[in-house]
Amino acid sequence: MMVFLETPLDEKTVRSLKVGDVVYINGPVMTGRDEVHIRALKNIDEGKENPECLRNAVLYHCGPIISGTEGSYEVVAAGPTTSARMNSLESRMIEEFGIRAIIGKGGMSKDVGETMKRCGCVYLAATGGAAVTLAEGLARIEGVEWLDLGMPEAIWKFRTSRLGPLIVAMDCNGNSLYEQVKENLKR
Amino acid sequence: MIVLPETVDEVVVKLLRLANTRLSHDIGWALEAAAGWETNDIAYSQLGSIMDNVKKAEFLGRPMCQDTGIPVFYVSGSFDSSISEKITEGVRRATKEIPLRPNAVDPITRENSGDNLGEGMPIIHYRPTDDEFIEITVLPKGAGSENMTKLAMLNPSEGIEGVKRFVIDSVLDAGGRPCPPTIVGVGIGGLSDTCVEMAKEALTVPLDVRNPDPVLDKLEEELFIALNSSGLGPMGLGGSSTVLGVRIKKAFCHTASLPVAVNIGCWATRRATARIMPNGTVEYIQGGE
Ligand code: SF4
């Protein structure tokens, strides 16, 4: 089924998505990869503030190429990065920030899948490497946080327009397309 | 494409631009062939976005993937030691001008140099020959596929079956992480280091050129069929296009060893070659002609 979603997402919408659905997104999406996960959780541990944009966010595992300077940033290429690197940190991110959807490639661990089921979050697979097509959907940059982490690791705040196609690869019922494929692999 | 005299650093900038913005013809054809036989809807949609992306990247002159990788250079022909400095300068310029994503960091502090350079960078393999020209090939290697690299020091008794098993397991265990459909580079023999080097260099061999060694040619075909029958599919989401090709290189090894290495190239295996003639003219090549 093809679905058009407006972000921020509410729990009910997220829970209605099923593995195999094809999704396009309109609205705010935040990038965050290794360093964002590490810093955000460390800030919580130390009682420090985190950027408000992470709350109930759609989190995109992506380290984009951006051109221009403040006020004139433009996205050049922005495909997904390998989500499995964030496996050990993602459950806490979902719990602490109420992340509703994660966009990435390659899928995440069963543990993260369990947290998604419990908290109401889905995993959306973006086509790895389709960085120019996806950059088109990311449309506009509304700001950036933590640029000191470097261009790929900062939080880029995108206003998306028909970002996709994204495939619901892990849903809130504990289904994972990756697991299904893995179980049926012919070696 | 033949271009008039240019300095080596200009050639390197152009090579990196070419490799990053235009997919080699042989890989483009392999993608189209894969789309032709794919029957899984999701897989088909993934191949569709990839091909759409390749067209847009070339048209807009943008890198086809945001992970523009760590460039690996292969230099052959007649050159002197100044070439390393020129390639370094080319990488610095290309990072700014194209732009490429600054990927090189200190492994301990994780500090990013900002220009894709640093200790041990760029990576250059030198092969002096008696040819009059200089040939430079670049292979920008993204982390998604590079992180899936595997080396096994098999027992010689495991033989060719052991080699096949190891290659198939390495590709299937990597799942969707290296952005399938991939190109599988395999090294067989040598010592541990040369084995991995061969697996990587195998990725520079175009898909439309047959392996001159009939035994390896047959092995490439067997692995290609086995991997595409596995069901892993594009991005690990299922389907019958898991690999675009398998390329194998071999070397003699110790009688008590059987090293095998797998170095995966994602669908965006970016490569380009420049041949600089003694009169300074340059020919750019992508894929087998
Ligand atoms: S594996 Fe290749 S296509 Fe995928 S994100 Fe990395 S560089 Fe890009």
Question: How would you characterize the overall build of this protein?
Answer:
The complex is a heterodimer of chains A (about 190) and B (about 290). Chain A is an alpha/beta fold and about 190 residues long. Chain A has helices at about 10-15, 35-45, 85-95, 110-120, 130-140, 175-185; strands at about 1-5, 20-30, 60, 65, 75, 100-105, 120-125, 140-145, 155-170. Chain B is α+β, with helices and mostly antiparallel strands and about 290 residues long. Chain B folds into two domains: about 10-25 and about 65-140 and about 270-285; about 145-265, no CATH class. Chain B is globular. Chain B starts with a strand and ends with a strand. Classes of the chains: A alpha/beta (about 190), B alpha+beta (about 290). Chains A and B meet through helix 5, strand 9 and helix 6 of A and helix 3 and helix 6 of B. Bound molecules: iron/sulfur cluster. Iron/sulfur cluster sits at the interface of chains B and A.
Rough outline of chain B: globular
Largest sheet of chain A, order of strands side by side? 2-3-6-7-9
Strand content of chain A: 25-35%
Helix tally of chain B equals 8
Stretches of chain A where pLDDT falls below 50 for ≥5 residues?
none
CATH C-level class of chain A is Alpha Beta
Q: Please report the number of helical segments of chain A.
A: 6
Oligomeric status of the shown chains?
A: heterodimer
Give the largest interface pair and sizes. Answer: A-B, 43 and 47 residues
Short description:
With 187 residues, chain A is α/β, with parallel strands linked by helices. Chain A has helices at residues 11-16, 34-45, 87-97, 110-119, 131-138, 177-183; strands spanning 2-6, 22-31, 58-60, 65-67, 74-77, 101-104, 122-126, 140-145, 155-170.
